[in-house]
């Protein structure tokens, strides 16, 4: 068989975004030999792109804020489909995790009296997002990565993990390849933490980075772990629409948090026409009240532009469909007429440069054109709320690849605090799991040989298919048939097309050698992309209602019966199976929080 390098660790973390770094720090602090593996360079993970901030009820700007309000906002934003225990831990622990990040060197923006400044975002009752201008992800990654390297975490960059290895139903390690020279790598470890991020690259227009191909979804499924909530995909309301090369790039919600408003081609602030009953009591009815809210949150209600993302996304879709869109098929996002140029440049420096350089638009003078873009996966690996353990012993998951916390829709800013809270928990509980083991799992050589053979298959296909063409067809399919709005017929069509693409993938033959060969890498990524697409589409077909990031034109209402279950997806005998699993019952004391005034 092909030669491979072998490394022995107690804990292997796959993914070096915020979740992976935080998990690795915790496992290493517990004294365990810890490896951090990532398919890009350290410091380049998708998290580095995060802009607006980290949601945590620090109460620095609004002392009225506390974990209970954050709990309520997150549950309501998720349309009550969230795992309540995850939300509780998350809301309670997020402030501690942000303060810890500050202790480790993160230089947050400040209030006049020197506290961490917090900004407004959709769905949050109070200004809650700790931030560093609109480059919060960069600061977060910088801080975590210094700490991880300082503690002695071993980092394996540009290594793509392709298979998890198991021994008698427990994790035993991971196998992958070096992107640079194509050499194979085996990690033997009794605990593996998946922190591989999301899967936006399955759609054509996305704000997500090239790494987001759903590798963690395939790794978990093939190892035998469950997924949850895969039907819920967040289309962020504001992505760039013009020029075509920039389409899908994110325009941070911070623009609206800092006073920006959405207008149609007639100049109307159309969000007032789309306030849903569920949020009516807590949303301003007039422009005057909405504008007063920025300075007086106690006596005014939130502007409708700051409704949760799923609501704003659907409103933009309807406006454009009704012919009231902007010249390039979006709507206008206007901060120029609402805030002074110096304020905009200081608060939103990246947005200013992004539009100036990519679109030739000066956002301090002109409105931006925006349209929804695929942005975030609410679903992912099904985990235990406290320990981040998956349903497969030894496998843990944290960050965007884990499901449950955000329910049907994530609030902005809640991902970065998710990474910190559950990254730490995954590292902690993985360490405890390893420390409690009586006998260690063994890696079976036949599994390694099989994984190596699978990795080389794209060099041996019969030919006639091109991985780039398959990728483009998959992305078109998902954009067209499994997008913001779905129907049963379209979802079934999508499944047929995905199946055909899967057959065609078997025929791909890549040319050239194993040294940095992007066609080979893509052919391997496509396995994950196709399985992810299939899991999302099957779960979307199963859920016959509309809720959060899942809107069915053929079932346009939320159905209380569907509000009681999550959809679980698992792989058995080579096929994806679905199960409806009841939500865990909500304790009375937490139910009382949900009933508090908004
Ligand atoms: C433009 C933009 C702005 C955003 N702004 C905010 C914000 O302000 N606030 C907020 O809360 N959220 C924000 N988000 C969302 C947030 O950034 C992400 O949800 C979050 O960073 C995901 O972090 P993660 O650690 O789970 O994974 P990622 O940061 O996506 O990292 C995944 C890691 O896994 C590695 N990996 C993947 N597959 C493999 C494999 N097979 N083998 C080895 N390694 C692998 C990658 O190389 C990478 O290191 C934003 C997202 C975007 C796109």
What attributes characterize this protein structure?
23 strands, 17 helices, 598 residues, alpha/beta, single chain, 17% strand, binds flavin-adenine dinucleotide, five-stranded parallel β-sheet, five-stranded mixed β-sheet
Short description:
With 598 residues, this protein is an alpha/beta fold. Helices cover 36% and strands 17% of the residues.
Explain this structure to me?
It is built from 17 helices and 23 strands. It is α/β, with parallel strands linked by helices. The chain has a 5-stranded parallel beta sheet, covered by helices on one side. Strands 19-17-12-22-23 form a 5-stranded mixed beta sheet, covered by helices on one side. A hairpin with a 5-residue loop joins strand 9 (170-178) and strand 10. Helix 1 packs parallel to helix 4 (136-151), helix 2 packs across helix 3 and helix 15 (488-505) packs antiparallel against helix 16. The longest helix has 25 residues, at 518-542. The mean pLDDT is 96. The structure holds flavin-adenine dinucleotide. Residues 14-20, 37-40, 45-47, 49-53, 136-137, 160-161, 176, 195-197, 207-208, 211-212, 215, 250, 376, 399-401, 412-416, 419 line the site of flavin-adenine dinucleotide.
């Amino acid at each position: 068989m092909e030669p491979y390098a072998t490394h022995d660790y107690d804990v292997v973390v796959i993914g070096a975004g915020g979740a992976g770094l935080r998990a690795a720090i915790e496992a290493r602090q517990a004294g365990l030999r810890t490896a951090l593996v990532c398919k890009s360079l350290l410091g380049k993970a998708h998290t580095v792109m995060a802009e607006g901030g980290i949601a945590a009820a620090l109460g620095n700007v609004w002392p009225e804020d506390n974990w209970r309000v954050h709990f309520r906002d997150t549950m309501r934003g998720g349309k009550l489909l969230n795992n309540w225990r995850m939300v509780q831990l998350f809301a309670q622990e997020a402030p501690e995790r942000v303060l810890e990040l500050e202790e480790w060197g993160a230089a947050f923006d400040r209030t006049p009296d020197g506290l961490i400044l917090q900004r407004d975002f959709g769905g949050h009752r109070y200004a809650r997002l700790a931030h560093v201008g609109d480059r919060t992800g960069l600061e977060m990654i910088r801080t975590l990565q210094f700490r991880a390297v300082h503690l002695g975490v071993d980092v394996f960059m540009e290594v793509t993990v392709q298979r998890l290895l198991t021994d008698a139903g427990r994790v035993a390690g991971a196998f992958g390849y070096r992107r640079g020279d194509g050499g194979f790598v085996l990690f033997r470890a009794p605990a593996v933490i998946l922190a591989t991020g999301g899967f936006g690259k399955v759609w054509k227009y996305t704000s997500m980075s090239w790494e987001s191909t759903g590798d963690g979804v395939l790794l978990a499924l093939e190892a035998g772990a469950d997924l949850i909530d895969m039907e819920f995909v967040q289309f962020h309301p504001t992505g760039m629409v013009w020029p075509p090369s920039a389409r899908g790039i994110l325009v941070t919600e911070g623009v609206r948090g800092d006073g920006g408003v959405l207008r149609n081609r007639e100049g109307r602030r159309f969000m007032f026409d789309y306030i849903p009953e569920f949020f009516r009591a807590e949303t301003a009815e007039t422009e005057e009240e909405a504008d007063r809210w920025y300075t007086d949150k106690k006596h005014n209600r939130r502007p409708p532009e700051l409704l949760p993302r799923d609501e704003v996304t659907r409103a933009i879709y309807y406006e454009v469909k009704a012919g009231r869109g902007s010249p390039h098929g979006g709507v206008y996002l206007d901060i120029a007429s609402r805030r002074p140029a110096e304020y905009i440049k200081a608060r939103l420096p990246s947005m200013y440069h992004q539009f100036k350089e990519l679109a030739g638009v000066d956002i301090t003078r002109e409105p931006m054109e925006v349209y929804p873009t695929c942005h975030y996966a609410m679903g992912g690996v099904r985990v235990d709320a406290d320990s981040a353990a998956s349903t497969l012993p030894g496998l843990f998951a944290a960050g965007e690849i884990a499901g449950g916390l955000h329910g049907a829709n994530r609030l902005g800013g809640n991902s970065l605090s998710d990474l910190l809270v559950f990254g730490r928990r995954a590292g902690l509980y993985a360490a405890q799991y390893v420390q409690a083991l009586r006998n260690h799992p063994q890696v079976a050589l036949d599994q390694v040989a099989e994984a190596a053979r699978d990795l080389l298959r794209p060099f041996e296909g019969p030919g006639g298919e091109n991985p780039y063409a398959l990728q483009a067809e998959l992305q078109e399919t998902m954009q067209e048939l499994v997008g913001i709005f779905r129907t049963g017929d379209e979802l079934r069509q999508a499944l047929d097309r995905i199946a055909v693409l899967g057959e065609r993938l078997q025929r791909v033959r890549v040319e050239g050698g194993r040294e940095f060969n992007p066609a080979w890498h893509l052919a391997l990524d496509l396995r994950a992309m196709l399985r992810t697409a299939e899991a999302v589409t099957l779960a979307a077909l199963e859920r016959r209602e509309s809720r959060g990031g899942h809107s069915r034109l053929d079932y346009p209402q939320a159905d209380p019966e569907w509000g009681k279950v999550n959809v679980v997806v698992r792989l058995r005998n080579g096929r994806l199976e679905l199960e409806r699993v009841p939500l865990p019952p909500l304790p009375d004391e937490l139910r009382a929080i949900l009933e508090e005034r908004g």
